Amino acid sequence: MALAADRLETLLPDHKPALTTAQARAEAGRCLFCHDAPCIAACPTGIDIPLFIKQIHSNNVLGAARTILEANALGHSCARVCPVEVLCVGDCVYNVKGEPPIMIGRLQRYATDPAVHGGIQFFEAGSSTGRSVACVGGGPASIACAHELVRMGHRAVVYERNPWRGGLNTDGVAPYKMQAEESLKEVEYLSAIGIEWRLDTAVGDDVTWDDLEAEYDAVFLGLGLGTDSGLGIPGEDLPGVWGATRLIRAIKTGAGSLPDPASLGAAVVVGGGNTAIDAARELSLLGVPEVMVAYRRDQDAMPAYLHERGHAVEEGVRFVFRTLPLSFEGDRRVEAVRLTALDHDLEPTGEPYTVPADIVALAIGQARLIDLLDQVDKLDHDWGRVIVDPDTGQTSNPKYWAGGDLANGGEEVVNAAAEGKRAAYGIDGWLRENGGR
Amino acid sequence: MIQRNGRTGEPIDLSIDCAGIRSPNPFWLASGPPANSSGQVMRAFDMGWGGAVWKTLGDPITNTASRYGAIPYQGRNVAGLNNIELITDRPLEVNLKEIAEVKKKYPNHAVVVSLMVETKDEWRDIIKRCEDTGCDGFELNFGCPHGMCERGMGSAVGQEPKVLEEIAGWVMEFASIPVLVKLTPNITDVLYPAMAAQRGGVDGVSLVNTFKSVIGIDHDTLSPIPSVGGEGTSGGYCGPAIKPIALHMVTRLGKAPEFHLPISGVGGVQSWEDALDFLLLGASSIQVCTAAMHYGFKIVDDMILGLEEWMREKGYSRIDEFVGKALPNYKEWGDLNLNFKIVAEIDPGTCIECQLCYAACEDGAHQCIELPKGTRVPRVIEEECVGCNLCQIVCPVEGCITMVERDTGLPRESWNERVAKGTAGAGSLH
């Protein structure tokens, strides 16, 4: 499905634009080519980073892309969306030396752009094994799993309830890291080796788990997390009070009736995780003059990455800590948030006060898909987090595998990619041993 | 123009005399594209260069497009440069007029004219006409390894000591100003052509000219680089990559007891430190081409300021006080002390844990570094360390790995001394 041309994300700049050839060669030349390189160990998908950088330096850019995509099919989006500051780049030995670490993410982007944009394929479908696998959920975990399965010769069919492909890569990633268009290009590129898609198809509603089990030899669960959680306080259903992921989806895809942020005066974002920071930065960059993040604990307890918080502060986002909303107020739509300060035991203290807010984003977590998971026979989960074998990704129901946010509780795209690949190997091994149907 | 810094102390005099050619500092533009016209040479003198060797005069030629190819390395665009450009393509009259203009305006700068013609009559004629410009000396281009050598000139002369000596003899018959011979490195031993030049009676030698080279192939068109419409040829290699080989050749002449002529050092000089290497090994002037082609004439600022600073630090006030001063420390391998021992030491405090030293020693040298469990900081196994330097060379942190002397308690002893004593078999060679 084509995305709305006037979707808000297109107004935002690319915060890490493409390197020129001269920049890439110079940066690649700085890489020390460490023995037993810490950057590789820091990458959940184990990309041979010094090797692909050496390949860029030796003018073998497509070879670099092959090295990246062999380890991580989602390497094109990971180059843009990975929190490299806490992964590969964070472990670059140049940090120890007190010099700028290698710009690994941007070099990775430099390598994959020509391949993905030019449709240059390095891999193809393996000769058919006659087996087929359903991958439920159309995000990075399922795509990584399906890509690997197709390479092994299995048929892989991805079920996605939205009309677009790519999951959070398409509708959830901060636009200044990657816009939806880029995610769709990547999915197109990866699907070209033979991944099949069933869009607008919600498993549990449009097709049943029994249908899947009847049609496929195995099922991979890459459903991610559910809808945004609420606080359960008065005024939460006023127009203008958004769940953060729904708000971000509206910015990225045009879905939903989001007012022009430039016409708004103030925003309040509730929460302290990376989604809260994303929502706050996006609103601020789109022109909301006053953006406040209210977090109920201390600054040090904030789960959001320090570097992301730093960017938010630079962009003018204001943070208040140990602060909790009591209600959302307004006549026909939200106009203000009533807040209270919390003491060290997180109990309300002092007089409540109100701040103006034309828009509110709740980033306090996402619902678990407990009801949906309970429809599957003998599927063990810990309050919605599916329990898997750490080596194979297999669940307690031997026909089911899982990976991504559904199994890890909510991590990065690169973790989902690694777990999707892990499950593909697990499924392949199981199919070989068990002869399928 | 550089700003002299205002430090007090002994005034620094950079002026030199190389084979009777004087200049206010040792830095001359070498014969090549940067010294092709009066506009360039005068601008260079204004910016601080002490002299220039005018791009070779001779019979008019036609050049090709393109002409240059470069080897980039580690983010630098020019580690080595190759060219297939020939001698000047401008009319002789224009060059002579411009040389006279430059000399008139810059009487104290060195203007040396590079020459390359064929017959004795041609040499007589061109020397006469050049001397009328007031130039300070000649440099005989017996080194160019492309284009002209196929016509019996350039390196074709430099590779034939007899021919070299004969032509040098003609030139000395006609010239009344100092004459240098520019030597080609495309030979087995530079001493042979150098001795031929000395026998021919010239006043000095310049070395080295460029190395015959193929820079590479364009992997799409399969044309050698630089490409002339899809085809290419061997060119002359110069730039930083050739400096160590040029230094060896300068040293070869500096150490040969039978060779007595002054040397103008050429080959890959990019900085004052490069120039100092040539001076310490016996060159009394320095010629620079590729660095000026890469960075422009301003690069001389760094050369002058750096050399002055080093001289101040070491207590020298004139260049000739240290020309050739490193030559006594240059020994034949057989005279080096086999009982001198150094070992590597890694400073864990500055180690960034890249383990390049481990990989280099384990795979590329002598397996004397280990990776202890529980840390990423490598450890030198001192009893195994042969003191080869490789770990220190690859370490990206300055000062992290040092080579530390260990007293072996043994007296100085060289291989040649062992041979003399009849104990040469004792002691293994790596």
List keywords for this structure.
heterodimer, A: 437 residues, alpha/beta, Fumarate Reductase Iron-sulfur Protein, Chain B, domain 2, FAD/NAD(P)-binding domain, 15 strands, B: 430 residues, TIM Barrel, Alpha-Beta Plaits, 8-stranded parallel β-barrel
In short, what is this structure?
By secondary structure, chain A is of the alpha/beta class.
Secondary-structure blueprint:
The complex is a heterodimer of chains A (437) and B (430).
Chain A (H helix, E strand, L loop, with lengths): L20 H10 L7 H5 L6 H9 L3 H11 L3 H7 L11 H5 L6 H14 L14 E5 L3 H12 L3 E5 L8 H4 L8 H12 L4 E3 L10 H7 L2 E4 L19 E3 H10 L12 E5 L3 H12 L4 E5 L11 H9 L3 E3 L2 E7 L6 E7 L5 E9 L2 E4 L7 H5 L6 E2 L2 E2 L13 E3 L2 H4 L4 H22 L3
Parallel strand pairs in A: 1-2, 1-4, 2-3, 4-15, 5-12, 6-7, 6-12, 7-8
Antiparallel strand pairs in A: 9-10, 10-11, 13-14
Helix pairs in contact in A: 1-3, 3-4, 3-7, 4-7, 5-7, 8-17, 12-13, 13-14
Chain B lengths: L15 E3 L2 E3 L3 E3 L8 H9 L4 E8 L9 E6 L2 E8 L8 H14 L4 E7 L3 H12 L5 E5 L13 H4 L2 H14 L4 E4 L8 H10 L3 E4 L3 E3 L21 E4 L4 H13 L7 E4 L5 H9 L2 E6 L1 H6 L3 H16 L26 E6 L9 H9 L4 E2 L8 E2 L9 H5 L6 E6 L8 H7 L9
Helix pairs in contact in B: 3-5, 5-6, 8-10
